[in-house]
Amino acid sequence: MAPAHENSAYESSYSRPLGNAPAGRRRGPALPLALAGVVYALVSLVNQYNFRTAALDLGLAAQVVGDWAHGRVAYAALLLDSPPTNFLSVHFSLTPVLAVPLYWLVGGAWALLLMQLGAVLLGALGVWRYARARGATGGEARWALAFFCCQWGIFSALGFDYHDNVVGAMAVPWLALWAGQGRWGWAAAAALFLLVSKENMALWLVFVLLGLAWQHRHRRGAVAGLGLAAAGALGYFLLVTHWVMPALDVAQRPFSQVVRYRQWGASVPGMAWNLLCHPQLLAQALFCNTDPSGAYDYVKLELWGALLCSGALALRRQPWYALMLVPIVGQKLLANDPALWGINQQYSIEFAPVLALALVDAVRRRPAGSARRRGWRWALAGAAGFTLVTLYARQSKWYDRATTNFLTGRHYRCPYDRAALRAALARLPARGPLSVQSNLVPQLPAPRRLYLFPVLRDAAGVVLLRHPDEAAGWPLRPEESQKALAQLRARPDFRVAYEDAQLVVFARRGPVPDPAEVLHF
C-alpha cells in the first residue's frame, strides 16, 4: 500500500488541470507508432487484399461513402431483414464522411480501412500525450503507448473489417487529456466526434463524461461542465434512437438494438429495475452462459480474464474508469447474442483506451524509477501475452485465425486467384442492381445498388463464387450456397452471362416477378 502522503498527493493532482509534457530530452512516439501502423496494416489491409472482408459492415459503409461522395442520400440495401432504407436509420453515424476525400483516390472500402487504421494510431498518440501530461517521462509514455497498441481488443476489431465505433472510441484519450488540461473547446470537439460516431456511442459518452467529472471532482467548474455535457449526450441518444432513426426507417421500425436485451424487460428502465431487484440474475448474466447451448460455456469468463490481464486491476482505486466501462460490459454480457459475449470482433474496442488511461494514472502512483518500470513491464507483459495467446486460440466462438493472426502464413494466402477474380469482377456491367456474396461486396466499386445474396429483389444480375467458404457465403452455409447455384442455373429467368473456375455471373431475363424475392433453403 502506498504511503498516506503519496495517496494525498495523488488525489490532489485531480484538483488542478493537467500540465504539458515535462521539459528535457524528448524522444517522440514516431517509431512505435510506425511499427504499430505496419502491424495493423498487416491485419486489416491484408484481409481486404485477400478477399476476406465482408458486406457487413465494410461493404455497407463503402456504399455509404460512395453515395455521400456523389452528394446523394445513402441507402442501406445490404440488410437481410429490411428493404433498402436510409443508412442513418440503421446506424446514426457521421464518421464515414471523413473517408470521402480518400474515396476519390482508393475507393470506398480501402478509404474506410485506412481511416480506421489512422484513427487507432491517433488514439495511441492520445494515450502518449495523456501520459506525458500526467508527468510521465518519455520512456514511460512509450510504455503506455505500447500497452495500448498491443491490446487484444484492437486486434480483434481490425481483424473484422471496419466499424464506426472503432473510430469513435479513439477520441477518448484526447477527451480525457483536454478535459484534464481545461482546454474545453478541444474537449468539446472530441466529445462531439464521439457523439456522432454511432448512436450507441452517445450513451457510452454519458458514462465517459460522468467518469471524468468524478475524476476531476475537486474542480467545480469542470464537474458542472462535464455534467451538463453528459445530460446533453443522454438527450441526444434518446432523441436519435427514439425519434430520428425510426422516422428515417422505411418501415418506421423502433430502434432495433434493444431486442438483444428483451429477456430482461419490455423497456430499458424496466430491464434496469428487474436486474437491480434480482441481483442473482445480474450475477448470472455477467459470468455464466445464459444460452441453452453448452457451446458458449466459459466465453464470458474468457472476457473477464482478458480484462484482468490487460490492466483492469488499475480500476481498483480509480472507480471513475470503472464507471466508464459499465455500459460496455452491460452491452456485451447482458445481450442474448453470444457473439457479443467474448473477445471477438469490434465489441471490445472501447476497453482499450479506458484501460490504458487507467494504467497511466495507476502506475504514476508508484515511486519514480525502477518501481514504475516494473509496473509498466508487468502490465505490458500481461496484455501482450494475452493478445499473443488468443491470436492462436480462444474460447469465444466463430474466431477465424486467418483474419486476425498476422503471425501465420495462412493470413497472407488467398483462397482465390486474386488477379483472375478481380479481372472477372471488372467485367461486370457498370449499372444495375446486383445480388452479391458477402466477401465480394467490398471489392466492387461504390456507389451502386447491391443486395446481399440470397436477397434478389430487383437485381439485374447475381454474382456468386463457385466454392465459397462459410465466411464468403454468409448467411448461407457452403452446402446451401451450392444449392443456390444449382437453383439459379435451373431457373428460366436467369442465364449464365459469365463463368470461370471461380466465379459465376447470372443475368436476369425478362421482368422482375417479385421485387421482394429472397431465396430460401
TrEMBL record:
Residues 1-21 are annotated as: Disordered. It holds the Pfam family DUF2079. The keyword GTP-binding does not apply. Keywords: Membrane, Transmembrane, Transmembrane helix. The chain crosses the membrane at residues 30-49, 102-131, 143-163, 183-210, 222-245. Signal peptide: none annotated. It comes from the Bacteria. This is Membrane protein. It comes from Hymenobacter caeli.
